[in-house]
Records
---
Amino acid sequence: MTTSDSAGEPLSASDRPARITAVVFDLGGVLIDWNPRHLYRKLFGADEAAMERFLAEICSPAWNARLDAGLPLAQGVAELVAAHPDQADLITAYHLRWGEMLGAPSEGTVAILRELRRAGLPTYALSNWSDETFPMTRARYPFLDEMDGILISGTSRSASLTRRFSASACGASALRPRTRSTSTTGIGTWPWPRGWG
């Protein structure tokens, strides 16, 4: 039987949709509601603008990405405190009260995860996450133990969606990159995009 596109033209083997053999999830914002605002709204009170400036300019996404890539929390906090001594208490809270940034599990996505597992598809997690904070995270969300494998950037000492990290993911899960994946709100089908490993 020949596979054709909507115009009736035959599809080559490389153009045909790949069979899904496993599903890869991101964690933050997909399975887990992680957000530093859960903590900093308590510290800034009604001053949302000051909180947003702090999270944009001091404990910024770029700084947090360094933590996710393996920078020790204590070192990262010390660097910021040295640069912004007037903000020391707020910066230190990022470390000492990190657990308060964790919100509820994303129940709809967790339900999808479990439905996929009931269907017999292996499920994995691949995410930017500090290896220091992940043990606390894993203990709080038992559904993570239902997955077939989890790789976080802090363990591989590199940010996700890089050649090095995707290669680590392939090695850790014994999955072989063959075709382009699809992604919907952070849920991807394995294999990874061509050339990422």
---
Amino acid sequence: MPNTTATLPSFSAGDILNKNSDFYSRLRDDPAGDDIRATISRSLLVAVLGASFFGLTLGTYGGSLAQILSAMIKLPILLLGTAVFCFPTFHIFQSWKAPKPLTLIESISLQSGVLASISLIWASLAPPLLFSHQLDTQLQAHSLSRPARRNHRRPGGLLPPHGRLSGPGRH
């Protein structure tokens, strides 16, 4: 039985960023824009999921479920909101100054690829942050369970009486 499932074309970040690749020629040859729409939607999905995962990690520092959910929602909004705010300026200046300006859809594909890359970098930082947060929590719990140490040789703790330091020439 033949395979009847449709496969979407696969584009890497290198394809999107490399102006010499056949990505943009395939984009221009596709009048319906199905390939590029699929690529943009996948990139934006990766951007939202990666930013949400990083937001989950940052939310754990607040300790409450509300803080975790809030950070999971706010970080993708921050990433996408910043991109939406800055995109018109980027597109206008690259159209004005670039030797081979990108079309609007090419600019959007480039922007969505960059957003996906940023969120993947954020998501890759999440496991070490979770580990360090867990380690920090365990160290704090351990230090709180032990009584404070004091320097019992001197009656004022670590400093000599009256806060004066002793040494040569100091009495």
---
Amino acid sequence: MSEWPIKTIAECASPEPYSTQIGPFGKALMAKEYTVSGVPVLRGVNVNAGRFYDDGFVFISEEKADELAKYESYPGDVLLVHKGTLGEIGLMPESRKHSRYIMGNSMMRVRCDRAKLLPEYLYYWLTSSDGQHYLFSRVSQVGVPQLQRPLTTLREAAFPVPPLPQQRRIAHILGTLDDKIELNRRMNRTLEAIARAIFKSWFIDFDPVIDNAILNGKPIPDEFAERAEVRREILARSQPSPPTPLPEVEGRNYRGGFGFAGLVEKARELRRKETPAEEILWELLRDRRLLDLKFRRQHQIGDYVADFYCHERELVIELDGGIHRTREAKDAKRDAYMQTLGLTVLRIPNADVLENPDGVLSRIMEVVQLSPSPSGRGGGEGVASYRHLFPDSFQDSPPRQDPEGMGGPSCR
């Protein structure tokens, strides 16, 4: 690392005009010019904790955006907040909701000369302890915290610049770690939401107690009568599934009633190489975690491999990444084939799973509740296996005997 040359951002910036640029100031962009729609204006809220948030915008008209064209941000730009929430760094992504973005007055950007410097490498240096120390050592404490001479400070930032292959490896390793951290954070949020839903089901709605009372013919208090009707409908659909029918053709492997056509290894490979979105959704669906339904992942149906399949509800779930925009005709043919088999196909963008897993679960539950269950299974809310832990009436239950070998005072 000591052999890497030290260069400034100005030396590594793109030779095009305005490659290092601060946002408009003064009367160039005023709050009265904001509109309800149009071209989004980038602010500090859109760059937070190293991530670019593609929402929460204020907007300006297309005509005003044309006037401020030199402040426009393009994919690959490194974005910095120089006033207010200092130290926040982000990258303008390739995939974004809007075609144009204009920097607000608290933003700066760097457009790198990619023959010298990768924007991902610069991003990670600016977010490092060295980069943050450089920025915060040049902060004015008068009034709103802001960088002194922000554009000059940005251009004069000096840092080690390795050869491009090493920059690429560094950015790849750190990017992979960042993606895993973000994935874990989103999974934690989803698991917390699931825990809240289970807590509400058990200890606020008393679903297991109501279920036991219904199954044992015990009276239910009037205040739980409405909830009891809902649970009766769910329990009526929660009958055991019949065995999966096997085809009559011999000498071939089958699963779920569909014939394999040499795609077994492909399905296994897809499971090993699942995307972050597939990993999250599988954690939410596996082991009958959603409505007590059995889901399979990377399941072969005819000559296709479905991302997720529920035989009990004849439901196929496909997660679509950016590549699916270029293969709409193939996807339509695939969906049409599955629909001829009586299957419902639900397509969900990867971004929805990553950004709003609760909303995705709600969409799946809407489809599941609307579609009849051919096997009679799948209406429960995932509490059937715990029903024995709850009383079968609303009367006070006698204290239970401790299981053998569990007689310590902490168990009473």
